[in-house]
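Troubleshooting log. The previous structure file for this entry was overwritten by mistake, so regenerating from the original sequence record. Sequence copied from the archived sheet and checked twice against the printout by T.R.
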Amino acid sequence: MNIRATDLVLEIGSGNNPNPRSDILCDRYIHDNNQRAGEFAAVIDRPMVAADGYRLPFKDKIFDYVICSHILEHMEDPQKFIKEVMRVGNAGYIEVPSALSERVFGWDFHLWYCEKDGNRLVLRKKQEGEQFNGFFHRLIAQIIWFRRFFEDYDAVWYVRMEWKNRVNMHVVTAPEARWIRELDKKASKLTQKAKPEFAHDVLFYARWMTRRVKKKIRKEIKRTIWAFNRRLNPGAIIQKLLPRLQCPACRGMLLLDDDGIQCSGCHISYTHEQGIPIFFP
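Regenerated output below.
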């Protein structure tokens, strides 16, 4: 990602794995985790806002960079969501599962097949279940050589795109049956390359576990420190966020008082939970 040291970075849909570079997190589901594979709880380790992606509570162009990782494929109206992303940010990064990944692994709460065509992101509406129905999810969770195979082909499983000023995106509401058949042929051909290689798998497991343990320790330390800060002075956290926020209903100025967060325009009152503004009336 082309992020400068001085850039203010928002991450939308940060979930259980926020990017280390994100300054502010935004997620709709701070308690409900049914939109996350593995049902992991949201990680809250820095300033966070709970809001709807279609009505972001941020001022126009307030962020230098916006990260949207594994969120677009969940959106019923991706064009409306991207319009909001472009409104609050000047540039950003989008990452989604590739169409091939979607056919192999299959997430029933994902709504779109995603591909990159040059500098354009193409989304095709999902209209049927995936043929393997979660089989490979179980493999990647239980068998180390399949995990190693997955990471070896990382570039195949994900679509990654940076944008500046605007996101070039095209939406197809009804993908052709022929396109699906060709995709399944590619998926079957790729998965046939998955096979155990003892020496490589032992080395991979050692590196993977080391990386995983270090990441978990760093994450837990940061989350524990932030949880303490949230309990100690939640009002100060919200006050620091307010200059970047606006009412998602009328775009009015927001004020913090003893009753919650108040809009000076439409007078809607929003709650907050230990330093997390919650923008659902």
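The chain is about 35% helix and 20% strand. Archived copy saved in two places this time.
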